[in-house]
Amino acid sequence: MNDRGGRVLIVEDDPDDARILQRLLGRLDRPYHCEVVQTCAQALARLQSGSWDVVFVDHRLPDCHGEELIPQIRDLDPGLPVAMLTGQGDETLAVAVMKAGAWDYLRKGDLNGPLLEQTLRSLRQRVRLEAEVRAAQHELEELAVRDGLTGLCNHRHFQALLQVEFARARRYGSPLACLMLDLDHFKGVNDTWGHPCGDEVLRSLAALLRDGAREVDVLARYGGEEFVLLMPNTDAEGARRAGERICRAVAATPIETSVGSLQMTVSVGAATDEMGGVLTAADLVQRADEALYRAKRSGRNGVRVAGISDGPASQPEGFRQGPLACLALVSARLERLHVGQGGHGEATAEVVAGIAPAVGLTGTGLQIARTTAHLLGLMRLATPDRVLHTEDVLSADDRQILDEGPALAETLVRGAGEDEALAVALRFVRTRYDGVGSTAAQVGAGIPLASRVVAVADAWCALTSPRPWRPAFSRADALAILSAQAGRVFDPAVVEALGQWVEGKS
Ligand code: GH3
Ligand code: MG
Ligand code: MG
Ligand code: MG
Predict the structure, then answer these.
(1) How far apart are CA 217 and CA 177, in angstroms?
(2) Catalytic residue among 67, 225, 346, 418
């Protein structure tokens, strides 16, 4: 309904009443095109097939009451003005029809030109107001889910969609991949060309990513110059390929800005919910974030996949060329074959790196600890499932097999002429903090720091990964288990640092 009149549907079974209303409408300044129907069924049919600006509904109709029809009209079009025609002196009915969703009512006996004019004016006003409210609501809804700069889904909305996609993937047993993308050296764009130019780059990149994403993917601006892409039904290999495609596309596309065209690159970290230790949607994002960190460290403009070692291009750090480098490569390949429960060395090394700063493990010491973690992962591959996965108390023989791992690694390290400190770290990695059961003199702070850190990281990764006989422990439970053993099995300061690191990531 606009100021030039409009189309009116009159639902009225009394031909005289219908004619009066039609005549009055015809005499108004604005031309109203009227159509009369006699029943509810006819009214609904006409409402569905045409476009209307206002509906007048009689109270008593052959096939239903007006107040039964009104809610059905509301369902069809909540914004369509409906006025009820009532008999004389029936105020109770008037209240009932307003409750049913009518916008106004007219007493047939009072019907005259000026009253009709006034009613239509107030209906028009309400239409305008409702449209304004709807537009404001729409804008609010958009603000709540969209990022203002790029138009992509915002961080908060992404978190909601992530929960939905994660639950869906679990329900249907299909893999869900998460890619974290971060522009390389973006600060340089701001510093050199100014913040507005940086904004242009972010907008262009968002458009580029949107063009490349599938309909089912969820693409969001995660924050600053970080984006996240959720890919349903995508496994680790698919995630890697998608990440590589994005890297290539960004590197190959000059980004046009007001200062000229700029060449940007992105780094990508990918993870899937299929890898061990991913219990919650937040774990998935965290793994992708950690992989992104690796992608940055390995030189940017590339993809790293959580739980999958980097292979020949970047072997686990700390190995020199030689026998150990070969073994590390073999173990990385083997772990790749067992992504579900493998990746233990890699995961442990990442946890080591996470908690190291808080306990003052830096430089060479940190590198030794990370290498120790990788070697433990490698030794796990050679440990029979029977020993790794038993629920029972280990037999003496099995216990020996388990303890042999670090000892074998130590022998390898010495044989390969690697760092003596690495050999020592390996020797003490299974030594309890209180020294119980150890024949060596080293106790507490006498045990190398690298060994104490790896011991905690190793236990944490084992607890938070599922095993055939038990699900993974939640982070809170795993922390509680380790805390209960702090001071006896584990260095309390390292357990404390782990707690802080875990908290910082959640
Ligand atoms: P790296 O390759 O390690 O990721 O380096 P970088 O420079 O991209 O990363 P860093 O995290 O140091 O810098 C990110 C910069 O992004 C810092 C911040 O000022 C800028 N930034 C964050 N949000 C916006 C934004 O909305 N617009 C613009 N123009 N800059 C932003
Ligand atoms: Mg009637
Ligand atoms: Mg960043
Ligand atoms: Mg960046």
Answers:
(1) 10
(2) 225
Q: Find out whether 369 and 425 touch, Cβ atoms under 8 Å.
A: yes
Residue with CA closest to ligand 1 atom 4 = 184
Distance, in Å, from the CA atom of 497 to the CA atom of 10, rounded to the nearest integer, reads 76
Contact status, residue 1 vs residue 124, Cβ threshold 8 Å: yes
User: Residue 210: what residue type?
Assistant: R
- The C-alpha angle with vertex 404 and arms to 415 and 378, in degrees rounded to 5, equals 70
Evaluate whether 371 touches 426 at the Cβ level (below 8 Å).
no
Answer yes or no: 215 catalytic.
no
Amino acid at 342: G
Banded model confidence at residue 336, pLDDT cuts 50, 70, 90: low
Single out the residue in 284, 306, 328 at which a domain terminates: 306
By the 8 A CB rule, do 145 and 154 touch?
yes
Phi and psi, residue 128, nearest 5°: -60, -45
What is the pTM for the complete model shown? 0.50
Closest C-alpha residue for ligand 1 atom 15: 187
Residue 486 is classified by DSSP as B
Cα atoms in the Cβ-side hemisphere of radius 13 Å centred on 298: 24
Q: pLDDT (tens digit, 9 = 90+) per residue, 105-128? A: 998 888 899 999 999 999 999 999
Domain of 339: which CATH number?
A: 1.10.3210.10
Tell me the residue ranges of DSSP E strands in 197-335. Answer: 218-223, 226-232, 255-257, 260-262, 266-272, 303-305
Q: Report the distance separating Cα 458 and Cα 345, nearest Å.
A: 8
- CA-to-CA dists, residue 7 to 10, 16, 41, 273, angstroms: 10, 20, 19, 56
Helices (H), 90-231: 91-100, 113-145, 155-172, 186-193, 195-212
For the segment 285-313, what is each residue's pLDDT rounded down to a tens digit? 999 999 999 999 888 999 999 987 654 43
**Residue from 104, 143, 151, 148 nearest 123 by CA:** 104
- Is position 1 within any domain? no
Tokens of 446: 């006498």
Whether residue 334 is found in the same domain as residue 464: yes
Side-chain-side CA neighbours of 469 within 13 Å: the count stands at 8
Q: Which domain holds residue 436?
A: 310-506
Tokens of 241: 């390929």
Contacts of 11 (CB under 8 A, 6+ apart): 36, 37, 38, 39, 40, 42, 43, 55, 56, 57, 58, 61, 66, 69
pLDDT in tens, 42-55: 999 999 998 999 99
Cβ-contact 147, 154 below 8 angstroms: yes
446 and 332: one domain?
yes
**CB distance 224 to ligand 1 below 6 Å:** yes
182 CB under 6 A from ligand 1? yes
CA distance 437 to 420: 24
